[in-house]
Amino acid sequence: MTPDDAAREGLLTSRAAYGARAAEYTELLGTMASVAEDDRLLVEAWAGRVDGVLADVGCGPAHWTAHLASLGHDVTGIEPVEEFVTHAHRTRPEVRVEPGSFQTRP
Q: Which residue among 20, 46, 48, 73 sits deepest, i.e. has the most Cβ atoms within 10 Å of its Cβ?
């Protein structure tokens, strides 16, 4: 097995693991209420200094994506785990969430 094959296998294993527990993850951590205030303030301050489109790569259930969009930012969530993408489309249809990862983005 080449290093590239091993890396691909690792990504597939990680995606499957997150997919299997996506509902649990979303229930426990998928809202802004689960985010520490200091973290929220830090990300909001950073986003306020950025010009252009924000990419929330690995957005999970897209709670951060939706939060940043609610603050007026042009943001796209990018998520490799299909179960999170499906959840985001179902619960936050107003937010742009696409399947993908850093490796699949131009």
A: 73
